[in-house]
Design goal:
The protein has 414 residues and is α/β, with parallel strands linked by helices. The protein folds into two domains: 70 residues, Ubiquitin-like (UB roll) (Roll), CATH 3.10.20.30; 332 residues, Alpha-Beta Barrel (TIM Barrel). Strand 7, helix 8 and strand 8 form a beta-alpha-beta unit. It binds zinc ion.
Amino acid sequence: MIRIFVNDRAVSVARGATVRDAVAVLDRELAELLGSGAAYVTDGVGRPVDGGDAVREGGAILRVVVSARKGPPRLSKDVLRRWPKAELHVHLDGCLRPQTMLELARAQGIRLPADTPDALAEALHVKHAKSLEEYLTKYEITLSVMQTAPALERIAYEFVLDAAADGVRYVEVRYSPLLHRPSLTLAQAIEAPLAGIKRGETELRGAIKVGLIVCGIRTRPAAESLELARAAADYRTAGVVAFDLAGAERGYPARDHRAAFEYAAGHGMACTCHAGEGDGPDSIHQALHDCGARRIGHGTRLGEDAALLADVIARNIPLEMCLTSNLHTHTVGSIAEHPFKRYLEQGVVVTLNTDGRLVDGISLTDEYFLAQSSFGLTKQDLARVVLNACESAFLPEYEKVALVSRVQSELEAL
Ligand SMILES: [Zn+2]
């Protein structure tokens, strides 16, 4: 049993119980109001939570708000999970299944910070990070079990299954093959996840399409980024769709890695770049103007430079935004301060992404639910965001048109 608080009353529920179950333990009538939409539940700081969510351990606090008008949220997570979605910004090394990590660690003789799936997920959760730099340290733990080709293949395969189960029809997943050396060559480190992706796609018979993005790392020498861009370009007909630059942003300018971007673009690869997350708008400016990025990873701080914002709108540069991750890295102080809705209204091509499903403790469905409940987005707004992601995919034009029309007709049929 776990003990939580509902409306300031201690309630004991079985492990795995939902928020709805916990409310029913406290008060059946309240649970009925919740079921009819006349009440909704928030967490301790007032963020709406879904009735179907599992209750988290460790003295979680829930409040049931009874509302005359139908309060948020409009669409439940069950409904949003069935929505067709696309995701453009998610790190493979942030998306392992905890159980898989434990199995891989055992087989490879590696010590992890916990030995049950729940405790491991909690240990890897970045919610207590103080900065982007601290957030990135969690990845050292996941990467420790990802140093063999079979492990990388399995992790990529399971990622595809998990994304499809979350209603994702198209996803671009990224990682840096550099972080799998010296145990693997760059070629092995690229071929293994491509094989896992192919296995997942084949097994799911076209339910999901997946592209791989290769990331250079800002804190590593520019020569390594160039080497990566070359390796990535060699696999551009085998599933690698783009080149990216990731890692600690402040003090490590993207323009130092310009040669890698030039090589990638010169060999028919699309480019994106993390920017405006750990540093300000100048970093976004560099990504666009010095490195030729066609999308921006995060771009949260874009609005600090009005001219740059206008330029991004005029050029239809998509932003790969990650709300929960931005909270975890303290890029924004609170969800209310996040510029996502303002950008959407100003005409920026904004998209919603998880960044890391395990380390951020969310699914893409959770991220859509958060956007809906925090910003009061309508169904039309959410559909716009889904289509923004489809239209911003790094796919050949004819494949993109096919994706957009498939998702559009699925949205219309809802
Ligand atoms: Zn990222």
